[in-house]
Specification:
The complex is a heterodimer. By secondary structure, chain A is of the alpha/beta class. Chain A has 2 domains: about 35 residues, no CATH class; about 350 residues, no CATH class. In chain A, strands 1, 2, 3, 5, 6, 8, 10, 11, 13, 15 and 17 form an 11-stranded mixed β-sheet that branches. In chain A, strands 4-7-9-12-14-16-18 form a 7-stranded parallel β-sheet, with helices on one face. The longest helix of chain A has 17 residues. The radius of gyration of chain A is 23 Å and the shape is globular. The N and C termini of chain A lie far apart (about 60 Å). Chain B has a single domain, classed as Rossmann fold, CATH 3.40.50.300. Chain B has a 6-stranded mixed β-sheet, with helices on both faces. In chain B, strands 2-1-4-5 form a 4-stranded antiparallel β-sheet, with helices on one face. In chain B, a hairpin with a 2-residue loop joins strand 11 and strand 12. The two termini of chain B are about 35 Å apart. The chains are: A alpha/beta, B alpha/beta. The interface between A and B is medium-sized, with 23 and 32 residues.
């Protein structure tokens, strides 16, 4: 780009005008709506991807065309029109004239409650930062520390170019292109995402969080994450943000793949707070995510999620316990309010001997929402001495919401030991009155009760995240009583 | 301090309180006795602001301020405390966390800053020693799996922490063995001062051996029908309530 001249610009603009009929520079980076093979190729081309990547996308696209949208989940929504979406949009540039005064005051109020720093607020709203140097230097320091350990952490687009051998080796090995309708769509058109590689025996010295948050703006609607922990390594990865994001994209279909090689451990924590729609159930994000990890011998993968956003959630972070003595964990809090619908849970696939899995799911439903836990525990014939413990608790607020539990258990080995516990409870008027009598107002009382209910899962989150998540639960349920 | 005037209250169509009058001054201990279903617990709930009852007429005045329109938490902030007959469980919320929230919400409502953590710990230690509460107890989930005695002791512990102006103890003696009863009663006695007052609701004389009342009132069929000093409680213990009922009918 260093020799980019005005003439080049002129040529580029003319070409684009020719191609897509757009004039302004801003619009020139957005593709026309609709999806076909040419669009898939164009995405790959725009991202300057190697041929194998383009072919991989095309293969996924062809498979997707043959597939139909799944309907088995306990959610009801108007199906997206896949030909009405634009599949490529370059990250929005910072608008130099925009200040925080231009941002929705309601949103700012929420940031305040969550204790989100001013810099991060600006970041999330494409507002130019005052203290640019600061954030750049923070990011640089992180990069240096990680680099010294040989840890690779970058956008997946960069990784495809800089570490093609690693990406090619692992991409699609846990979630194949044809895995399901949304995974196939994502494989064909994924916009960007993250790639992380922890070398053998390395313990990642920091939670991959702050860095991530600073660099998170504009990840797009078809995110792809690939995380490889080589033998004996450890990493804790934090995804998402407690701050509400008013994304204009209604459909989000992300794919996350985790690979934990022998003796490796991955802790993956998510806080999802996308726009849930308004109080009447209008608008809101459809979040259809495929997340899966694979464990080799003695490896461990923990998924922890706090899901409070989106109008419709369809998400089952899973673990394939391929190696002997491997461990899978799933800790989840899913909150639905107003007209939100969530169908979420996990799959624990026990293939290796002495494999262990733990599932703790806490569903909180308020308003007119529907909250479903759906889980599969599968013990293969070779998985001697497999163990599973599942606990699914539901908390209901008011009389118009629903909590549903769909646990599937398939055991093909007689030595397996599987335990499942489930409870459903309601926040009682007597509990609230008791708190009131001690001087605790109703909203605070609900927050206290909900946090108590969710404690087992909140405790699994990294400290800094846990505090924010706790506040987030309070905010998500605001106005749900009364 | 607390003045209840001609209080009528009902639940649905059923009138439960039929004109209660009660004057409690600072430094006093009042006992309210009476048979089951007389309206004792209802009276306690209504003073605390339970919205399941309709107050049809009358006034509840604390230090010159009418409480009738105030929410339960606002009454608490002004110094009303109710020791529940059946304290509820809140899983996952520790005794410490709960009382810390209660104290800080009260302080916030009264325009004070949160209590600093070290001061909070100090007060918790003092008050838990007063009630012979084991430290391990404080990190357990509120009332979850507590024995009857532990629940009541926890109620009085919260009272000690919150230092209310007026404390209503609703059958705090039920479910207590004799040792626990003594500990709880000692706690209440130590917390008593000339600036606060206690209303004890009970069926039995037993608790009043330890917490000696200045006044005893008999609540019968929604009304206070007889008041006297501590000797009235002894008389009730001996003769039951029938003679009062007969007096009423006569």
């Amino acid at each position: 780009m260093s020799k980019y001249t005005e003439d080049d610009l002129k040529i580029e603009l003319e070409t684009k005008e020719y191609e897509y009929g757009f004039y302004t520079e801003l619009e020139a980076d957005t593709f026309p709506i609709g999806l076909n093979e040419d669009i898939v190729r164009a995405i790959s081309l725009r991202k300057e991807e190697p041929q194998w990547m383009t072919d991989w996308r095309i293969e996924a696209f062809r498979a997707w065309q043959e597939m139909t949208e799944p309907e088995w989940a306990n959610v009801h929504y108007a199906k997206p029109d896949f030909q009405a979406i634009s599949y490529y949009s370059a990250p929005k540039a910072v608008d130099p004239n925009k200040t925080l005064d231009d941002v929705d005051p309601e949103l700012l109020e929420m940031y305040k409650k969550l204790g989100i720093s001013v810099d991060e607020q600006k970041m999330m709203n494409n507002v130019a930062m005052d203290i640019v140097v600061d954030s750049v230097s923070v990011a640089t320091t992180f990069k240096k520390t990680l680099g010294e350990k040989g840890i690779i952490f970058m956008s997946i687009s960069e990784a495809i170019k800089e570490h093609p051998e690693l990406v090619r080796k692992y991409l699609g090995t846990v979630v194949p292109q044809k895995d399901n309708f949304y995974a196939a769509l994502n494989s064909a058109v994924f916009s960007d995402g993250s790639f992380c590689y922890i070398p053998k025996g390395v313990r990642c010295p920091m939670e991959l969080s702050t860095y991530f948050r600073i660099n998170q703006a504009g990840t797009g609607q078809f995110e792809r994450t690939l995380l490889v922990a080589d033998a004996g390594s450890y990493v804790s990865y934090l995804e998402g943000c407690t701050a509400p994001s008013r994304d204009e994209n209604q459909l989000h279909a992300a794919v996350v793949e985790l690979i934990a090689l022998e003796d490796a451990e991955i802790k993956y924590s998510t806080v999802q707070n996308w726009y849930p729609g308004n109080k009447e159930g209008k608008g809101g994000v459809y979040n259809f995510v495929t997340k899966r990890g694979i464990c080799e011998n003695n490896a461990k993968i923990s998924w922890t999620q706090v899901e409070t956003g989106s109008a419709v959630t369809w998400k089952y972070p899973s673990v394939i316990l391929k190696g002997d003595n491997s461990v899978g964990e799933f800790y989840s809090i899913a909150v639905t309010n107003n007209f939100q619908q969530a169908d979420t849970g996990t799959k624990m696939i026990h293939l290796g001997k002495n494999t262990k899995s733990t599932i703790i799911s806490k569903g909180i439903s308020a308003g007119r929402s529907q909250n479903s836990y759906r889980g599969l525990v599968q013990i293969s014939p070779r998985a001697e001495n497999a163990r599973n413990f599942s606990q699914c608790d539901s908390l209901l607020m008011g009389n118009n919401c629903g909590a549903h539990t769909f646990p599937y258990i398939e055991s093909k080995n007689p030595s397996a030991k599987i335990e499942h516990e489930a409870t459903t409870s309601k926040i009682g008027e007597d509990q609230v009155f008791y708190c009131n009598q001690r001087g605790i107002p109703t909203e605070k009382a609900i927050a206290l009760i909900v946090n108590g209910f969710s404690k087992d899962v909140l405790n699994k989150l990294p400290m800094e995240f846990a505090v924010e998540a706790q506040k987030l639960l309070e905010i998500s349920l605001e106005g749900s009583v009364g | 301090m607390l003045s209840i005037k001609n209080l009528h209250a009902s639940i649905g169509d059923k009138e439960i309180l039929k004109g209660i009058n009660l004057e409690v001054k600072a430094g006093e201990v009042h006992a309210i006795m009476g048979p089951n279903g007389a309206g004792k617990s209802t009276l306690a709930s209504i003073v605390a602001g339970n919205e399941n009852y309709d107050v049809t007429s009358g006034e509840i005045i604390l230090d010159g301020e009418d409480l009738s329109e105030l929410a339960p938490e606002e009454r608490a902030h002004k110094g009303v405390f109710l020791s529940f007959q059946y304290p509820v469980e809140i899983p996952g919320v520790s005794v410490t966390n709960f009382i810390r929230t209660a104290i800080n919400e009260t302080r916030k409502a009264n325009g004070q800053d949160e209590m600093p953590a070290n001061e909070m710990l100090k007060v918790i230690r003092e008050k838990s020693e007063l009630l012979e509460i084991d430290r391990k107890f404080l990190s357990r989930s509120l009332n979850e799996g507590f024995s009857g005695g532990e629940k009541k002791r926890n109620e009085i512990f919260q009272m000690a922490m919150l230092e209310p102006k007026i404390a209503i103890l609703d059958e705090t003696d039920s479910g207590l063995d004799i040792d626990a009863l003594r500990i709880v009663a000692n706690g209440v006695n130590k917390l008593k001062s000339d600036k606060n007052a206690v209303v004890v609701i009970t069926h039995y004389q037993r608790l009043l051996d330890y917490i000696v009342p200045d006044y005893v009132h008999v609540l019968l069929n929604g009304k206070i029908v007889k008041s006297g000093d501590a000797s009235l409680a002894l008389e009730l213990e001996e003769k039951g309530y029938d003679w009062i009922k007969q007096e009423q009918e006569a």
